[in-house]
Amino acid sequence: MGLGLKLLELISEALCLNPNHLKDMDCAEGLLILCHYYPACPQPELTMASTRHSDNDFLTILLQDQIGGLQVLHQDQWVDIPPVPGALVINVGDLLQLITNDRFKSVEHRVLANRRGPRVSVACFFSTSSAILKIIWTYQGIVIRRESTKIQGNDSERLCSLFALKRAWWDFCSTTFQALNWSPYF
Ligand SMILES: O=C(O)CCC(=O)C(=O)O
Ligand SMILES: [Fe+2]
């Protein structure tokens, strides 16, 4: 929590805002921690440990062990993020991209499967639903997300479509998780 708040202060200052601005928007109100356990994989060329995605939050603080496999997409190339003992990885998430109107860009990343293992990582996601509501009211009219740029219509129609997209994704996940008897991601 302490590190997340400090980062939000620094990002606020980088945006020429009051240091408390992002904290006061409740950007650190919700903390979700996801612990990953990736078993050793006998045929890593056939699968992924984690498929490409960007995080749906403001900031992610990630602790990874020494196995490696994390990559980020930079200028259309997958770049390794090798583990550094004692270091944490900080990812900018979609919501930070959204509220800064692309000044901070969320990063697509993935994790390669590995013959060595298991690999363990711990991801701390800084997010909140109340901030999302504020964003909608504050930033209505701004083209905000990659998906929304592909959606036709005026700005409020785009926002509705964006949320329909998210809703469909959510429904798909919960149906799949229920069908497979997995616990939900969120
Ligand atoms: O395991 C990792 O290093 C990445 C995990 C991740 O990207 C996530 O939880 O969103
Ligand atoms: Fe992620």
Summarize the structure.
The protein has helices spanning 2-14, 21-24, 94-99, 129-139, 146-150, 155-180; strands spanning 30-38, 48-53, 59-64, 70-74, 77-80, 89-92, 109-112, 119-127. It has 186 residues and is of the alpha+beta class.
Describe this structure in words.
This protein has helices spanning 2-14, 21-24, 94-99, 129-139, 146-150, 155-180, and strands at 30-38, 48-53, 59-64, 70-74, 77-80, 89-92, 109-112, 119-127. The protein is of the alpha+beta class. A hairpin with a 2-residue loop joins strand 4 (70-74) and strand 5 (77-80). It is globular and about 50 Å long. The two termini are 19 Å apart. The model is unreliable at 136-147 and 182-186 (pLDDT under 50). The chain binds 2-oxoglutaric acid (AKG) and fe (ii) ion. 2-oxoglutaric acid binds at residues 34, 36, 50, 55, 62, 64, 70, 109, 111, 121, 123.
